[in-house]
Amino acid sequence: MNKPFRIGIAGLGTVGVGVIKALTKNADIIALRAGCEIKIVAVSARNKGQDRGVDISGFEWVDNAVDLARYGDLDAVIELIGGSEGVAADLVNGTLDNARHVVTANKALLAHHGYDLALKAEDKGVSLTYEAAVAGGVPIIKALREGLAANKIHAVYGILNGTCNYILTMMRETGRDFAEVLKEAQELGYAESDPTFDVEGIDAAHKLCLITSIAFGVKPDFGELQVQGISNINATDIASATEFGYRIKLLGIARDVDGEIMQSVEPCLVPIHSPMGIIEDVYNAVYVEGDSVESPLFTGKGAGEGPTASSVVADIIDLARGIQVPTFGIAAKNLKEAPRISMGDTRARYYLRLNVIDRAGVIADIASILKDNDISIESLVQHGRDPDHVVPIVLTCHETRHAAMIEAVSLIENLDSCAEKPCLMRIEEL
Ligand SMILES: NC(=O)c1ccc[n+]([C@@H]2O[C@H](COP(=O)([O-])OP(=O)(O)OC[C@H]3O[C@@H](n4cnc5c(N)ncnc54)[C@H](OP(=O)(O)O)[C@@H]3O)[C@@H](O)[C@H]2O)c1
Q1: Are 326 and 118 in contact (CB under 8 A)?
Q2: How many whole angstroms from 351 Cα to the centroid of ligand 1?
Q3: How far apart, in whole angstroms, are the C-alpha atoms of residue 382 and residue 245?
Q4: From ligand 1's centre to the CA of 80, what distance in Å?
Q5: What are the pLDDT digits (tens) for 161-220?
Q6: Is residue 357 classed exposed, middle or buried when 0-12, 13-18 and 19+ CB atoms within 10 A define those classes?
Q7: How far is CA 136 from CA 50, 128, 188, 235, 307, in A?
Q8: In the chain, N or C: fewer CB atoms in 10 Å?
Q9: Domains of the chain
């Protein structure tokens, strides 16, 4: 067999420990697949003395993770620290500068700096791979970059954040509101103590950014993404969606609209039995529309020790085999600036929930604003009556321009009778 493929691992948390376990547990079959032994030479984290539940005494300990970039004769550095700046960024830059391969699970780093890093990797003739960064154990990066390389991609839809999908599923199953379910998810360890990145859609947006780049051959550009989270969704929305035949999902959408690219992360209504509607609990899914392949669905666990380590190790095996592919599927210098459609020009059907004071003329006021903006109501539901108190009104609208819908909602929000911020969601008929 060939000489070992030598790696250094930076970060020994959930993913780093998972990678050590996977490489140890399946060492024999991994060596056969890789064509050589995968040898962990050195590791680094913050706290050397911490018990990590795995034996690291056989590996060299490096105090400063950034030093792994030039440490010994490593073939690749595995960056599993996280964060778009700081140590992770310094380590990845330093490793590429030193013409060594990088494997990472760090979507934040790649969403913000992926283009420059890809240029650097190509300039140095090495790989920058990140299968674990998107949808955890689901090999969607490889699928888009390699398996579907023959296709012109029309659209990619993703449920890319397991925490949000879990919260939405629990809200529906228990009838409880967002805050209550979030608190429980935090107690169970499904949500971080600071859940902002997850529930405000930022984590999903980092991932969508990378998917869009591969699917459409454009530079990853996080700044251009439209991002909205799930914190404004309440029990009425969940119940109403079900009544209309839909589920609410935090959806990442990357779609070609007449040669321009729409890119957004937002809660959407999708039909209950559609490919995205059936994805529940912590599961992730990516649904691709390609001209030859039609519409494959990829689904599985998007996070956690095992699934994430599975993807990191798959990248390492590829490198040991000598397989190198461009970071975003085409040479970085050929990635284009994305021709982006203004969100206002996109069209969709919409769901709108209003909390209004129950008095004569309110519905007429709302209908008049919608009519003035060329928006036609498809259905309108008010459950119960409570004169002079706040009641929810839920309506769906026929397809209309996003800009018209936004204008109408802002006028409705300014009505005296409108008691709370309205909840507007796109309806996606997948
Ligand atoms: N967890 C998942 O399910 C998952 C899924 C997909 C992608 N990812 C990505 O994988 C990466 C790692 O996530 P994780 O969940 O494994 O994180 P984690 O459990 O918080 O572990 C982070 C590790 O980085 C080390 N670290 C932090 N700051 C450091 C520094 N300044 N110098 C050296 N080491 C430092 C920590 O050291 P100590 O242990 O000594 O404190 C820890 O071992 C992130 O980019 C994350 O977005 C995670």
Answers
A1: yes
A2: 38
A3: 17
A4: 5
A5: 999 999 999 999 999 999 999 999 888 888 888 899 999 999 999 999 999 999 999 999
A6: middle
A7: 25, 17, 19, 29, 6
A8: N
A9: 5-132+307-330 (3.40.50.720), 140-301 (3.30.360.10), 345-427 (3.30.70.260)
| Strand ranges (E), 45-175 | 60-61, 76-79, 101-104, 128-129, 153-159
Q: What token pair was written down for 6?
A: 């030598």
352-377 pLDDT per residue, tens = 999 999 999 999 999 999 999 999 99
- 57 CA to middle of ligand 1, Å? 20
Distance, CA of 208 to CA of 280 (rounded, Å): 19
Atom of ligand 1 nearest to the CA of 47: 40
* Closest C-alpha residue for ligand 1 atom 19: 13
pTM: 0.96
Q: What is the pLDDT of residues 257-301, one digit of tens each?
A: 999 999 999 999 999 999 999 999 999 999 999 999 999 999 999
Query: What is the whole-number distance in angstroms between the Cα of residue 105 and the centre of ligand 1?
Result: 9
Dihedral (Cα; 16, 22, 24, 30), 10-degree rounding = -120
Catalytic residues: 207
